[in-house]
Write a sequence for this structure.
């Protein structure tokens, strides 16, 4: 049982909880997720199963899209709705739509973020949330992330009230904390803020409409049709360039052979999926660092598949 399962993660579960439940449902040991979602967040969570765990890194690094909500007027320990309120400030003026849109424009592109204390970022071998739970404040590393698109989804022209909430959509690079982005939006508007709701609507090429719930997974298991919802490795990597070879060359790929760089792929950067005549993914290849006219194996799947057929 190998492939990628596109899970519609429910709120209230950690990503690890989801992996554990799928491992138990499918009775498979090799299961891994492709990018942590906080417990309160629902949405797209690709799960790699069996040999597909070897391509997890190529799905983890993809850009993500979220739809969330910022609430102005209160900051929390965790920067989301689950934390304790640590600062409040009544929204004492009318905020114009144009003002919010200007802030979102300012935060588009490369920005510096400091991860929240309640996060899985490691400092000196320990996760930040472990320090936070012990009441220890440590210096956190600032990172540069990319906000590709940041759009206001609320149609109002003015925003008022003791607290103000509005929805947004963001497409961003790996490592972006949307909780922290919500806080940054609030800071630029002059108020403490937190992220009050969040859904991941896309992870790389996969969107929410492609995903399946735990209840649906159980139904497929009962019907003995679980293979129908597993994306094969070659389909999960459909966005990468393909290089089809014949069966004679496939035997060499199985043994990790270095191959000539295909002429049509000479201008491309990044990995190439080598497929056989049946369109199955045999390996991932990259350009040879010392011999630009050759490609070398990065991940080989064919050897494992050959063993399975014996």
């Amino acid at each position: 049982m190998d492939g990628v399962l596109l899970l519609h993660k429910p709120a209230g579960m950690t990503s690890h909880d989801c992996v554990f439940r799928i491992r138990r449902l499918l009775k498979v040991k090799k299961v891994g997720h492709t990018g942590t979602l906080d417990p309160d967040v629902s949405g797209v969570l690709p799960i790699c199963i069996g040999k597909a765990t070897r391509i997890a890194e190529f799905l983890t690094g993809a850009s993500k899209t979220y739809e969330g909500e910022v609430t102005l007027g209160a900051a929390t320990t965790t920067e989301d709705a689950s934390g304790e309120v640590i600062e409040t400030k009544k929204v004492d003026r009318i905020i114009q739509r144009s003002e919010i849109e200007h802030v979102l424009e300012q935060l588009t592109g490369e920005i510096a973020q400091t991860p929240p204390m309640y996060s899985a970022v490691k400092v000196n071998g320990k996760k930040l949330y472990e320090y936070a739970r012990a009441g220890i404040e440590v210096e956190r590393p600032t990172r540069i992330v990319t906000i590709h698109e940041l759009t206001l989804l609320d149609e109002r022209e003015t925003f008022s009230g003791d607290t103000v909430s509005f929805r947004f959509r963001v497409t961003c690079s790996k490592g972006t904390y949307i909780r922290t982005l919500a806080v940054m939006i609030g800071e630029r508007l002059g108020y403490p803020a937190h992220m009050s709701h969040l859904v991941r609507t896309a992870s790389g090429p996969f969107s929410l409409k492609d995903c399946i719930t735990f209840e649906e997974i159980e139904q497929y298991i009962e019907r003995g049709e679980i293979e129908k919802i597993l994306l094969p490795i070659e389909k999960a990597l459909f966005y990468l360039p393909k290089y089809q070879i014949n069966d004679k060359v496939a035997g060499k790929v199985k043994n990790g052979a270095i191959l000539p760089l295909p002429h049509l792929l000479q201008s491309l950067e990044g990995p190439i999926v080598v497929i056989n005549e049946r369109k199955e993914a045999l390996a991932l290849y990259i350009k040879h660092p010392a011999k630009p006219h050759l490609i070398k194996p990065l991940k080989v799947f064919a050897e494992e598949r050959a063993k399975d057929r014996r």
In short: The radius of gyration is 23 Å. Residues 32 and 152 are 33 Å apart (CA to CA).
